[in-house]
Amino acid sequence: AKADGKGTFRRFDPMLDARVQARRSLEADLRRAITVQEFELHYQPLVDARTGRITAAEALVRWRHPERGLVPPADFIPLAEETGLIGPLGQWVLRTACTQAARWPSHIRVAVNLSPAQFRDLRLAETVKAALTASGLAADRLELEITEGVLLADEERTLATLTRLRAAGVSISMDDFGTGYSSLSYLRRFPFDKIKVDRSFVRQLPGDPESAAIVRAIITMGACLGMTITVEGVETAEQFAFTAASGCDQVQGYHVSRPLPEAEFLSFVDAREAA
Ligand code: C2E
Ligand code: CA
Ligand code: CA
Ligand code: CA
Questions:
Q1: Ligand 3 mean position, distance from CA 57 (Å)
Q2: I want to staple 56 with a disulfide (CB 3.0 to 4.6 A). Which of 25, 109, 204, 250 is the partner?
Q3: Ligand 1 atom 44: residue of nearest CA
Q4: pTM for this structure?
Q5: Is residue 44 within 6 Å of ligand 1 at its C-beta?
Q6: Which pairs with CB-CB distance under 8 Å and at least 24 residues apart come from 53-56?
Q7: What is the per-residue pLDDT across 102-129, written as a single tens digit (0 to 9) for each?
């Protein structure tokens, strides 16, 4: 047992120690990866539910690790948020997505995910404007996706940041809609351009009547509020047919395409447009 400095004794926990060690080494590895830019963006198409045309792509970060291969964001974004490394990483994602999208056909927009920590940075609007200027991407081709976690912070500050971003011409999407505690009240208070219906509502479509009713209701409500509605996580032809018939604007999911490296994404766009 070791003294913990407060006069009590705690048994040494080898499991805990191993976890702390693993976390420290992952953090050091992530720090290194950011300096050598060991990341890449994959792009998942969003298609117009009526025409099937590709209208946008969501940028999804991956870590090309020298030993571990392609590491998904769930394995490093949380740590990046806790350690503040999300600042430089998020900056890289934003700049890279804007630079790449500036070379795409001009009707295709790009969506970038922002974490709560990035959103709390008062310089966010300036960072976004700088990325647009440096890349030459028109502001109306950039969408920023935020989750409810962003909105839990200081409300006035959040509203000010959202307003500045929209004044710059960028659009804002509420991601993972329906999974939080108070999604509905946020819609009234914050200016969103788009709602992304979380894939948990899609999983049991079209067979489950409750899921079907919820998806239809969100689509109707969003339309009444003047927001564009994207349904995420559409994996099957049946789910695609159901969501398109429910009147949503855009569909995203494995049924259309998995996230792809940029070159493959652009080939996918070419093949679709030629068809
Ligand atoms: P998200 O923003 O909700 O992104 C959608 C996730 O769902 C992606 O996982 C995508 O590959 C996956 N997905 C898309 N279609 C389907 C489908 O039909 N079925 C299923 N089962 N999954 C589908 P991914 O790429 O692993 O990203 C996971 C999360 O990591 C994202 O969730 C987002 O929250 C976060 N993330 C990814 N890239 C970034 C980034 O650059 N910055 C920040 N802050 N977070 C990011
Ligand atoms: Ca997203
Ligand atoms: Ca989502
Ligand atoms: Ca999610």
A1: 13
A2: 109
A3: 115
A4: 0.93
A5: yes
A6: 53/272, 53/273, 54/108, 54/268, 54/269, 54/272, 54/273, 55/107, 55/108, 55/109, 55/250, 56/108, 56/109, 56/110, 56/111, 56/143, 56/250
A7: 999 999 999 999 999 898 888 999 999 9
